[in-house]
């Protein structure tokens, strides 16, 4: 018996040519192109892409692996650099915790990671032992020395890593590749979305007078959410009560070759939000993410310029609005929302493209197992909401446990009573000396962030009893000198970040 092809002969219409649209086109083509699925991507020449989104989690490595695109092909085209993790200066203010690093961890950190958890347990019990994550994770050490996270031969385990890249160039790279693989590309603006009596979308009517019909419609229209919200009326679940930031101002600045090429994102807390600094091979991307209820555009731009100092001189600022939250159902009728149209959780941990990937991958898997009007739809939506809400809680933690008193913004964030019950429980158990490990296990996958990330944020921001006493004799404390030696030995395998990239491509 012939096996049923999940999408043979059908026509997938992707509306939107931002990063989400081209990622969707690439992944659908990879999964279903050979089965005969036709893919058309429509984008407007009149409506810009958002033009930001330059940091990733390690999950983006999986995207390029799926498409069989090696680093030496896409990285040069996107001025890309490696990312060992994110540094967070200025969030806590507690002595000893002025800055901490959220590492991308791997098996290389196995032993030192356990030492870190162990020390955290002691410190939660009031014993004064080293707990800043920077000292326990190899990625933090790599970033501190401007090293590449890609080791030379000889190391048994290698650290995980993400990337920084020019968002516009990544879109252009994926577009060129998709067109070469036969994806139809139309430039036009959709003026009307036609639906049948059941609510399914049947066609998109274009400004030039034509129309395009299809079987499955992928809404990648960014914050416009043209199909999922404007046509299908999907409810938007705002995260505004826990994530106050709804604006950003972005500004590029030059690299200083004398300073080496950083392999980390830096996310510095400022008066009413935080500023990102992302190194590409050609420039830094910077931006200030803030709350419009607390400051206006020009105050934010001034603050960013002050923060960047002379590097900001002459740089043109771009002001952006953000809609923070998610739709209730990402797959509704014959429409799947992907990217900013489905939701956004502000860029603090650079998770948006990971959600794009997860959404498309899960859809391909569940759709393939089910049918067109699938019984899998509720399970799919529940799963994607779990990803969004899990990430939301981790992002909210940065604000909830901040230690700043320099503005109402930070105090209101700290006093915010609207955090989820799950996050409240995590904080209560951590603070009260309860069984944090069991709680993490109980929530499991729903937390999205794994144990090291939860420890890194709570320990990195100094969430410990204020008084700590010296460790009594015979207390088993993590041997910091051994950890230091282990890192020194491992670090010798990693090249300088700039040298490594320069060997891959001249810049
Ligand atoms: C300040 C900020 C910082 C960010 N930082 C990061 C980060 O570090 N890491 C990360 O992963 N993500 C980040 N993001 C998110 C990231 O930018 C987006 O997830 C990503 O760019 C995908 O956007 P998109 O393709 O969904 O939407 P867009 O880029 O907005 O694209 C929308 C597309 O839809 C088209 N369109 C809209 N309406 C119509 C119409 N009627 N007819 C035809 N076409 C139409 C437009 O022409 C455009 O092509 C950030 C976002 C913001 C706001």
Automatic annotation (TrEMBL):
<feature type="binding site">
    <location>
        <position position="349"/>
    </location>
    <ligand>
        <name>L-tryptophan</name>
    </ligand>
</feature>
<feature type="binding site">
    <location>
        <position position="83"/>
    </location>
    <ligand>
        <name>7-chloro-L-tryptophan</name>
    </ligand>
</feature>
<dbReference type="InterPro" id="IPR036188">
    <property type="entry name" value="FAD/NAD-bd_sf"/>
</dbReference>
<feature type="active site">
    <location>
        <position position="83"/>
    </location>
</feature>
<feature type="binding site">
    <location>
        <position position="190"/>
    </location>
    <ligand>
        <name>FAD</name>
    </ligand>
</feature>
<dbReference type="Pfam" id="PF04820">
    <property type="entry name" value="Trp_halogenase"/>
</dbReference>
<keyword id="KW-0274">FAD</keyword>
<dbReference type="InterPro" id="IPR050816">
    <property type="entry name" value="Flavin-dep_Halogenase_NPB"/>
</dbReference>
<feature type="binding site">
    <location>
        <position position="340"/>
    </location>
    <ligand>
        <name>FAD</name>
    </ligand>
</feature>
<keyword id="KW-0547">Nucleotide-binding</keyword>
<feature type="binding site">
    <location>
        <begin position="17"/>
        <end position="20"/>
    </location>
    <ligand>
        <name>FAD</name>
    </ligand>
</feature>
<dbReference type="InterPro" id="IPR006905">
    <property type="entry name" value="Flavin_halogenase"/>
</dbReference>
<dbReference type="GO" id="GO:0000166">
    <property type="term" value="F:nucleotide binding"/>
</dbReference>
<protein>
    <submittedName>
        <fullName>Tryptophan halogenase</fullName>
    </submittedName>
</protein>
<dbReference type="GO" id="GO:0004497">
    <property type="term" value="F:monooxygenase activity"/>
</dbReference>
<keyword id="KW-0285">Flavoprotein</keyword>
<dbReference type="InterPro" id="IPR033856">
    <property type="entry name" value="Trp_halogen"/>
</dbReference>
């Amino acid at each position: 018996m012939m096996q049923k092809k999940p999408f043979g002969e059908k026509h997938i219409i992707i509306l939107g040519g931002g990063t989400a649209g081209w990622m969707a086109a690439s992944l659908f083509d990879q999964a279903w192109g050979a089965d005969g699925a036709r893919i058309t991507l429509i984008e407007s020449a009149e409506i810009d892409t958002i033009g930001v989104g330059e940091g990733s989690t390690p999950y983006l490595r999986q995207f390029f692996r799926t498409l069989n695109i090696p680093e030496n092909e896409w990285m040069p085209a996107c001025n890309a650099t490696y990312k060992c993790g994110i540094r967070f200066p200025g969030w806590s203010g507690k002595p000893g915790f002025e800055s901490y690093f959220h590492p991308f961890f791997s098996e290389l950190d196995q032993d030192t990671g356990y030492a870190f958890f162990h020390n955290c347990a002691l410190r939660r019990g009031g014993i004064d032992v080293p707990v800043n994550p920077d000292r326990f994770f190899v990625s933090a050490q790599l970033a501190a020395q401007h090293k590449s996270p890609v080791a030379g031969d000889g190391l048994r385990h290698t650290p995980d890593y993400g990337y920084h890249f020019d968002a516009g160039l990544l879109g252009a790279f994926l577009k060129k590749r998709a067109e070469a693989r036969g994806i139809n590309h139309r430039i036009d603006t959709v003026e009307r979305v036609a639906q049948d009596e059941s609510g399914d979308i049947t066609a998109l009517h274009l400004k030039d007078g034509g129309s395009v019909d299809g079987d499955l419609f992928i809404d990648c229209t960014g914050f416009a959410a043209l199909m999922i919200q404007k046509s299908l009326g999907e409810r938007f679940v705002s995260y505004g009560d826990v994530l106050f930031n709804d604006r950003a101002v972005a500004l590029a600045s030059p690299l200083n070759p004398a300073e080496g090429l950083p392999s980390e994102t830096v996310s510095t807390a400022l008066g009413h939000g935080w500023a990102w600094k992302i190194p590409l091979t050609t420039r830094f991307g910077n931006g200030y993410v803030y709350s419009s209820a607390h400051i206006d555009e020009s105050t934010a731009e001034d603050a960013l310029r002050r923060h960047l100092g002379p590097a900001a001189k002459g740089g043109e600022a771009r002001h952006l609005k953000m809609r923070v939250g998610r739709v209730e159902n990402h797959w509704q009728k014959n429409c799947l929302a992907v990217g900013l149209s489905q939701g956004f959780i502000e860029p603090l941990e650079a998770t948006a493209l990971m959600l794009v990937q997860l959404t498309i991958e899960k859809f391909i898997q569940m759709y393939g197992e089910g049918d067109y009007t699938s019984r899998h739809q509720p399970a799919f939506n529940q799963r994607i909401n779990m990803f969004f809400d899990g990430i939301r809680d981790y992002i909210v933690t940065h604000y909830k446990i901040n230690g700043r008193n320099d503005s109402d913004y930070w105090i209101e964030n700290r006093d915010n009573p609207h955090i989820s019950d799950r996050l409240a429980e995590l904080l209560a158990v951590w603070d009260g000396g309860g069984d944090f490990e069991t709680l993490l296990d109980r929530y499991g996958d729903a937390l999205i962030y794994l144990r090291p990330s939860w420890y890194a944020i709570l320990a990195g921001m100094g969430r410990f009893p204020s008084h700590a006493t010296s460790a009594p004799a015979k207390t088993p404390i993590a041997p910091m000198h051994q950890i230091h030696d282990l890192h020194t030995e491992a670090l010798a395998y990693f090249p300088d970040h700039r040298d490594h990239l320069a060997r891959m491509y001249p810049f």
